User: What shape does this take?
Amino acid sequence: MGDIMKYTDNTEVLNFEEIKKTKLKKNKKKFFLRVLPLLLIPILLVLTVISTHSTELIIIPINYVIYILLSLFIYLLITGFFLIKKKKNKSNKKQKIKKVILTTMLIIYMLGCSFGLFLLYGPYDKFRTWFISTSMSTMSHQYFCKWFYSDKEIDKVILNNYTIEVNEETNTDLIKMEEEENYANEYEKQILKRDKDADYKILELEVNGQKSYLAAIYDPSKVKVAVSKGVGTYGQYATKIAEENNAILATNGGGFGNAPGNQTGGRPTGVTISNGKVITDNTYSSDAQSGGLIGLTYDNKLVLIKNATAAKAKSMNVRDGVSWGPFLIVNGKKSFMKGNGGWGYAARTAIGQRSDGIILLLVVNSNSTRTKGADMVDLTEIMSNYGAVNAANLDGGTSTVMILPKKEALKYRSDCTDNYCYINDPVDSSLRHKTRGIPTTIIVTK
Assistant: This one.
């Protein structure tokens, strides 16, 4: 009797092991013929579409491998639906919940891939225009849009979004240095109505839903260019440069890049002059087609100089200046802008001067995804509204900051703990609310 029982137990164990092996084999088959294809087909499809538009991200030999893999997994998926027959069995509540979660995740994944393709190549070109014009206007991120678009597609967007600057030398006679006695409009009133001894006034604006700050500096002789201690090699945070120069207000300055072997933004674009001293005099620029030197003369007038050299700047009596652009307004005339002006939307900094000599410094925030902010049209409109006779775009993006000493900064943000703080909200390339090192700043001295 004992032998019979033993035999029966062993048979049950063997049957259980056999069932387990069969189930495992079936699960593996299901994974390779259904689950894996469902996971890989969407991403392979995305890569296939990208490779038909550009070969920068996916080089030519690899795109053929992707085509083969896509075909293979589509074949496996189709085969899987025919070979694996679905059995009706009662699953417990836990299994049903697990199945619903996995199905939901798969649907979200597929929708995400589809949405990405829709944004990049769909019939609505708003994102495409923003992405290409923003990427192509930067110094070091042009490859982003070249990953996804051909030169022909990029050129098409650029041809519909560009700036034609006013082709004139700055006429400094338009700056009279005489304050208006009456307010011509509400913008004039906002600028001119101030405390008697105020060095500056900050207006809080909103641009495309983003907070912005416009500072009116009443004495242009106090507006200067300050540079990092390691200018040419390494940059510093604008807050540090402002503190070292005992500034009462500061913004970031001109364009720049990284010096070889140093990624801290220490190499200014073009001509840089600080307190009469030539800091840089080179042709290094990401955009030679627009902008130039943005300078202040010894008689405190803002001049915008195309094709600038240090010698030309000196001949025009420039005491402080940085290089960037485009120029937005020259001699009261706005630059012509088609579309968004060709620079996309981003955090922005701009400088201008009114006919009464008042300097305007503008910073515009971007959002956490860096899809909003101001374009060149917005900057031009704001500067024009507030009476700028001459105005230019300064460096933007992560660099955009407006800085005040702690006591004043606390009026705009409650978390200022350092001696100097920025009052706007910069966002860096990692989407952190943080600025970066730069070589030049526009400062307002005491």
User: Anything to note?
Assistant: Residues 1-8 have pLDDT under 50 and may be disordered. The longest strand covers residues 200-207. DSSP finds eleven helices and 21 strands in the chain.
